[in-house]
Design goal:
77% helix, 295 residues, single chain
Length: 295
């Protein structure tokens, strides 16, 4: 009976602290690798970006259970993590734009049009290179400033020791809140699928999936499967957003080129696919109810 009592007791460490500790170690290792590499690969940046977002999500949950004094410290650390994630995301966006342009270079007319495409793509590569250098410098600066040591230290206090029932309650609350936001964003995007509304929906889907992944690791009974259709919708929304950003940033002299028209046609096709998917994919139906806690 004593063992059973400890399993749900108020001083039992939850899986949230250990999972955040693992994330901190992984982010620290990835940061060191990216900071050392002359040209960090797209895969290494993707992994760092994913783990930084997960770490931000975990600390956002932790802040909700911290004291006022602890919350101020966690807020400061979380802002630093979020800023790193933003820098990685900016470099990733440039990489994606270069990759998209590589896919349409065969469409460009020989001569001046191809030369303009090459120059534009070269500028994006330069921007990506500068972004990588800024990111590497920021990673080294945060490492020297002992960001990861401070993050680990923040887990050593009271917020890291949470009851299993407390964590489950928090996960349920977060999932319920994000699910409602996802349903609302989906409804607005169906009614008027503007660029901004579709982008907001993509963010809502991504955040909800991140929380589901965290819940499945921290407290498996709290996790819920996410339908494959929702994952595919997120991918299509991401591709559409990449095309939107690239085409919106084109100079007027490039917009009438054959390759830009090809990208425009691709965007329209992806957008039609997304709009159709919005009618088929209903988050309210696809996502099961929270697990029963009464048993």
């Amino acid at each position: 009976m004593a063992e059973a009592g400890r399993a749900e007791g108020p001083t039992t460490p939850s899986g949230l602290g250990p999972e955040l500790a693992r994330l901190i170690d992984r982010v620290a290792a990835r940061s060191a690798s990216v900071g050392r590499a002359p040209r960090p690969s797209a895969a290494s940046l993707h992994g760092l970006h994913r783990d930084l977002r997960r770490l931000h999500l975990g600390f956002s949950m932790l802040k909700n259970l911290a004291s006022t004094a602890d919350r101020a410290r966690l807020d400061s650390l979380d802002r630093r993590v979020r800023r790193l994630a933003q820098l990685v995301g900016q470099v990733r966006d440039r990489d994606v734009a270069v990759e998209i342009l590589q896919g349409v270079e065969h469409v460009a007319r020989p001569g001046p049009e191809r030369e303009r495409l090459d120059r534009y793509r070269g500028r994006l590569r330069d921007d990506a290179h500068i972004g990588r250098e800024l990111l590497r410098a920021r990673l080294r600066s945060e490492t020297d400033a002992r960001l990861f040591e401070e993050l680990r230290s923040a887990l050593g206090g009271r917020p890291a020791r949470l009851s299993s029932t407390g964590v489950r309650r928090l996960l349920d609350e977060h999932q319920g809140r994000l699910h409602r936001k996802l349903v609302a964003a989906h409804r607005k995007a169906r009614r008027r699928p503007s660029m901004d509304r579709l982008h907001r929906l993509r963010i809502r889907v991504r955040r909800f999936r991140q929380l589901i992944d965290l819940a499945a690791t921290v407290d498996p009974p709290a996790g819920r499967p996410v339908a494959g259709a929702l994952r595919r919708l997120q991918q299509e929304l991401g591709h559409l957003h990449d095309l939107d950003v690239l085409l919106a940033g084109l100079e007027p002299s490039l917009r009438k080129s054959r390759w830009a028209e090809q990208l425009g046609a691709e965007r329209r096709a992806v957008r039609r696919s997304v709009v159709d998917a919005l009618e088929m994919v209903r988050p309210r139906r696809l996502l099961p109810s929270p697990p029963d806690r009464t048993g």
